[in-house]
Amino acid sequence: MKAVKKITKGQLKYVYGDNWKNVEERILTNCFCGKCGGGVAIIDWEAELNDLNDAVVRGKCAKCGGSANRYLEIGENGEYEEKIEEIKKQLVKIGIKL
Ligand SMILES: [Zn+2]
Fold first, then answer.
1. Where in the sequence is the domain holding 10, given as residue range(s)?
2. What is the pTM of this model?
3. How many domains, the chain?
4. Is residue 98 part of a domain?
5. Model confidence band, residue 74 (pLDDT cutoffs 50, 70, 90)
6. Å from CA of 56 to ligand 1 middle
7. Contacts by 86-94 with C-beta closer than 8 Å and gap 24+?
8. For residue 76, with 0-12 CB atoms within 10 Å meaning exposed, 13-18 middle and 19 or more buried, which class applies?
9. CA–CA separation, 35 vs 60, rounded Å?
């Protein structure tokens, strides 16, 4: 079984670069909650990379405290590809099997 590739907020921020502000303002405020549905802000979140090099952000719904998440399609974006590869190398260094 493959390990979950957790990445830090700093690493995710690094991937997005100048677009991070937009992510914080428009994406992390527009997540999905199992109870409230779409359009909720996410708090206390953690991010992971999946096998498609996309990121999944999981945390709590700011409204009800339930589980909220958001899928970030970054793997197909050429602008981010190199940075994602860098992060994967960092994960290998700390012993995470990819
Ligand atoms: Zn909710």
1. 5-93
2. 0.90
3. 1
4. no
5. very high
6. 17
7. 87/7, 87/11, 87/14, 87/15, 87/49, 88/5, 88/49, 90/11, 91/5, 91/7, 91/49
8. exposed
9. 11
